[in-house]
Amino acid sequence: MATKSLTLVMIFFFLLLLLDCSTARKLKALRHQRPCKRLVFYFHDILYNGHNAKNSTSAIVGAPTWGNTTILASNNHFGNVVIFDDPITLDNNLHSPRVGRAQGFYIYDKKETFTSWIAMSFVFNSTEHKGTINFVGADPILTKTRDLSVVGGTGDFQMSRGVVTLSTDAYEGEVYFRLRCDIKLYECW
Amino acid sequence: MATKSLTLVMIFFFLLLLLDCSTARKLKALRHQRPCKRLVFYFHDILYNGHNAKNSTSAIVGAPTWGNTTILASNNHFGNVVIFDDPITLDNNLHSPRVGRAQGFYIYDKKETFTSWIAMSFVFNSTEHKGTINFVGADPILTKTRDLSVVGGTGDFQMSRGVVTLSTDAYEGEVYFRLRCDIKLYECW
Amino acid sequence: MATKSLTLVMIFFFLLLLLDCSTARKLKALRHQRPCKRLVFYFHDILYNGHNAKNSTSAIVGAPTWGNTTILASNNHFGNVVIFDDPITLDNNLHSPRVGRAQGFYIYDKKETFTSWIAMSFVFNSTEHKGTINFVGADPILTKTRDLSVVGGTGDFQMSRGVVTLSTDAYEGEVYFRLRCDIKLYECW
């Protein structure tokens, strides 16, 4: 009788182990497929060019020796540093309600083609969202979609990590561009 | 008899599952409330203004086209880039023993108000702490407290993540400011 | 009989708990010792100095008021900002096949000695690796080895975290340096 119950216990023990392992595997697989939070925003960058002091949301603040801080440099703007404080909207209309600000900087970092590198925060302070999401990463502008890292967050986005997929939704010469940001958080609190 | 022990085993099995779930929930709740490590530091920034070469710990290195690198720009310093190597102390006294250095840069990124964005490392090399803590995030200076992300660490702080709450402890015109940094690590090794 | 099987169940229950705890401890210890992925690369930086427009891969784009963007500043280059797009190779030969690009910027951030701070991405687009690894951290150049944080990744390196150990493999005056990068990822997907 004791042997019987011993066997039973052992069967359950192994079932439990199996369950444990398969759950872990399933959870891991799930984590790979599905973000715990997903958000889509647009942000709008209007570069100061000497004539748009009122409307502009960004400015050149660094340039290589062959450039200046009023006009983007030759060689695919290589060496330019731009600081921005751009409005964030829920759709692709510049005049839609601002739901936050994209603040930070980008640099143009390649002579042979248009490529940039961005470090920025999305800053929210509305009834919908309070807090920040912090991003860094390479932004090869001419690629249809490109992935940057969500390296952290605060407030509603405390301790977030994930990936943001950027795509250029529109641009007008060297003055305006609009990026679509598909934020996928894989670590949430 | 076998049925009885089967029942017993099943009861324990479910108790175990319950225990497992509630523990996970408790651990998660705990993680939200309590950092695994908490550290408070102050750091002191003395901006070079053309007259304090000896004492200054930071310098303007980027400016918009309407500014220069000696005096902070108009429009709430929008467009200024400042590189710093600031002493870290345990209390709010500039002359207290230095326990490390805060190294990195900040930018002023808004025309309408004072707001900055910081990327920096706290570098420690003492008997107390060896290693670095890396930060990035938006710093809306005029807000009483503001949260930035701890995005990583090395040495004693290997693989750390968390949040740092900054508050302006003091400032003197445009030359000196002192920040209180309440570092809360929620991921430790 | 029921008591006997009850005892048995309880023994297994406690064994299970012990197993659970020791496994967790072992896993944690393992995680500390062994990266889930390890990669070694070299990258090569050739700074524009006014005479090497063709070969250079980086340029000074920010300088303190006592410097300029053609020659690195006095005071251990304090205040210089350099943007780079450097080739990555598998060995220490500048002419080896490029396996990716190191893109980002570094700043010199101390008056008294050579110390820098780096934010960059390794960008891969080959059959071997597709995706990016994102780094930030202090780089005290004169130290034999120094650790920076891997704060995120995309593509093949999605959601990566870890530490990179940099060492200066070679340098030629103020024009060329080559860094060995020993990347240790402790979080992989």
Automatic annotation (TrEMBL), chains A, B, C:
Protein source organism: Sesamum angolense
Assembly and oligomerization: Homodimer.
A Pfam family matched in the record: Dirigent
Domain of life: Eukaryota
Entry keywords, A to Z: Apoplast, Secreted, Signal
Record-linked InterPro entries: Allene_oxi_cyc_Dirigent, Dirigent
Function: Dirigent proteins impart stereoselectivity on the phenoxy radical-coupling reaction, yielding optically active lignans from two molecules of coniferyl alcohol in the biosynthesis of lignans, flavonolignans, and alkaloids and thus plays a central role in plant secondary metabolism.
GO cellular component: apoplast
Keyword Iron belongs to the record: no
Subcellular location(s) of the protein: Secreted, Extracellular space, Apoplast
GO BP, sorted A to Z: phenylpropanoid biosynthetic process
Signal peptide: 1-24
Family: Belongs to the plant dirigent protein family.
The name this protein goes by in its record: Dirigent protein
